[in-house]
Amino acid sequence: MKPAKIPQATGRGTPQRRRSAAQTWLRAIALTARLEARPHRLFADIVEEWAERQPERPALLSDGQSFTYSELAARINRYARWARGLGLHAGRTVCLLMPNRPDYLACWIGISSVGATVALINTRLVGRSLAHCIDIALADHLILAADCVEAFESARPHLRRVPRSWTVGTRDASGDLDAALATFEPNPLPPAERGDVTIDQRALLIYTSGTTGLPKAANVSHRRILTWGGWFAGLTDASTDDRIYDCLPLHHSVGGVAAPCSMLCAGASVAIAEKFSASSFWDDIARFDCTVFQYIGELCRYLLKAPSSERDTQHRLRLAVGNGLRGDIWEEFASRFAIPQILEFYAATEGNFSLFNVEGKPGAIGRIPPVLAHRFPALVVKVDADSGRPLRSDTGLCIACGPGETGEAIGRIGRADRDGAPFEGYTDPAETEKKILRNVFSQGDAWFRTGDLMLRDEQGYLHFVDRLGDTYRWKGENVATSEVNDAIRDCPGIVDASTYGVAVSGMDGRAGMAALVVDQRFDFGMLREHLSYRLPRYAVPTFVRLCRALDVTDTFKQQKQRLIREGFDPSVVDDPLFLRDPATGDYRSIDRVVYARIVAGEIRL
């Protein structure tokens, strides 16, 4: 496919829109109020409305493929008609395994508009992890890009049921989706033919590791898609003159829904990169003439570590919006790259509240202004550091943290219009129940557990501290230690294993580390090959510690706190320590010289 021509934006010069915090909140409220007044208006209808008003304006841009609003609406409609022709309606699911590209959005918007659910599958998964995600979706069909065929084949032997696959870009005559779509009309389905699809029906499954276990499929309704799109459009003050640069994975809720839907909601444009690249980032920003970009904290650190260049400030950016930009690099990042405004936020895919740092306070993830406290009640409660269980008073109720105290953030579960927000949960009811905390501040109330430790400062701003439970975050992904442990223990020569996250100087999140007890059959080469088949790259442990035995409690639960504290410092740890080479996957010994280079940031992890 020839690279798509990238249309230039109409205006020049850096946009200087900057509303007050109150105006920003009011605009977001206005764009998300009273969705139930039009219960059959879905996101596909928003795109259709913009296509009628500005058919030739660029909607989605990329190097390989671009859509104007008219072309995007037509593509969405073809997907809708194709899905309807297959009998895909409410209760039926399609898995989508495709790298970042404009067609990704057209696909799920179109299929979900006729009532079916689209499961957004992580393209970095392989083998059993990938099979698990397909299985729990109970999918009838799978849309598979040519780039992902090999990964799917690694999962096929582990599937309980193999869905019918449709391929894009492979020219497989038995299931060529492009050929099938070409036979359908580009005009929208009449309401009677589309079906009685409302905003409260499920549109997507988006996967999250949560705090424990294998990935879980979180339910995402049409209402939440509209809310995310409108809310972010309001808070970013998006207009038709904007272009956002989106290099985050489209299978995630931020990169794939919040970022693009906010711009499409405002009639703006989305420039989609297949993946993040520090070396081409600023060239892309200038080439696509972007005014906004979406970030995660790791992305910002990678950009700061790159050599300085005149390209760093040759842009029209007015705003960077994202999550995970920590206070230690906030001002340096804004200054070096001449970013006029940073909008840091906090949200979870399955969560029922979000936080926004509209005022731009460095290091804070946001706050809920008093005017919205009734709509998004969120608090921080005290928890036991070892067990992760909430602490309760003599009355049996939870204890709210005061300013400066660390605890778990929770959001009250209620109706969409008052007393909190709904928690839509997962496909597994048992997993849904695990995330609900009951009888919190009164008998019978229910709150969503984020699994995130936070503290509130004196001004009411919340600050992220760490993950709670057996999950750590690395390379922008949540990693469940139980999944990694299961994979490691299946490798010959492994007697026991304990996986945990360790802090690394200058890095966001925590790097994976595995303490292993092995026998004479153990071989690092075998471990490397085994884990490359069982786990996505970000979940393969960065560090390994070989132990004689692992500490356990009287009830045989692993005790990790000492391991976490000692980390990978050879001056503290007597056991042999090893570092995974990110290029080859080989594990090499860590001595004090290697450790010093890691801490100094000279060795890339």
TrEMBL record:
The EC number(s) given in the record are: 6.2.1.3
Family designation:
Belongs to the ATP-dependent AMP-binding enzyme family.
Using the record's annotation, list all stretches that form the AMP-dependent synthetase/ligase domain.
48-392
| Keyword hit for Nucleotide-binding | yes
List the InterPro entries. Answer: AMP-bd_C_sf (IPR045851), AMP-binding_CS (IPR020845), AMP-dep_synth/lig_dom (IPR000873), ANL_N_sf (IPR042099)
Asked if the Swiss-Prot or TrEMBL record annotates the protein with the keyword Nucleotide-binding, the reply is yes
Name it: Long-chain-acyl-CoA synthetase
Which of UniProt's keywords are assigned here? ATP-binding, Ligase, Nucleotide-binding
**Gene Ontology MF annotations:** long-chain fatty acid-CoA ligase activity
Q: Which NCBIfam families match?
A: PRK08279.1 (NF006134)
Please give one Pfam family short name. AMP-binding
**Family matches, as SUPFAM superfamilies:** Acetyl-CoA synthetase-like
Top-rank taxon, per record:
Bacteria
